[in-house]
Amino acid sequence: MVTKLSPVLFVKEIEPVLPFWVEGLGFQKTIEVPEGNKLGFVILEKDGVEVMYQTYASVEKDLPSLAADVRKGPTFLYVQVDDLGAVKAAVKRAEVYLPERKTFYGATEIGVKDPAGHFITFAQYPAVPQH
């Protein structure tokens, strides 16, 4: 039935978020759509995980009836990772909104804002013992 889920985050400009994902977290641009001298849309991917960014201006041209709604943001993402320490090092310049914590459901989490103001919580769960 469902085979993939790719969030689209709407932003004023895409370029400021690229270092966060590409340099920091190791994602690659797999698709980029220019909008004048800037990007209007981009898909970033790493190991089958995908996130998309689209500018407000691009939405206004593509789907004007949604233009007001996409500006309501921000988006909240919950991202499960296998090495929270590596993620913390990769996003160390990002604004922390959720200091590292251990949850009642077993995750160790940290929450940061991307450069566009979207909230991203990274969570590592303990390894499941093999029997």
Key features of this structure:
alpha/beta; four-stranded mixed sheet; 4 helices; 131 residues
Q: Would you kindly provide a written description of the structure presented here, covering whatever features stand out?
A:
This protein has 131 residues and is α/β, with parallel strands linked by helices. It has a single domain, classed as Roll (2,3-Dihydroxybiphenyl 1,2-Dioxygenase, domain 1), CATH 3.10.180.10. 19% of the residues lie in helices and 41% in strands. It has four helices and eight strands. Strands 1-4-3-2 form a four-stranded mixed beta sheet. A four-stranded mixed beta sheet has the order 5-8-7-6, covered by helices on one side. A hairpin with a 2-residue loop joins strand 3 and strand 4. The longest helix is centred in the N-terminal third of the chain and has 7 residues. The protein is elongated. The two termini are 31 Å apart. 21% of the residues are buried.
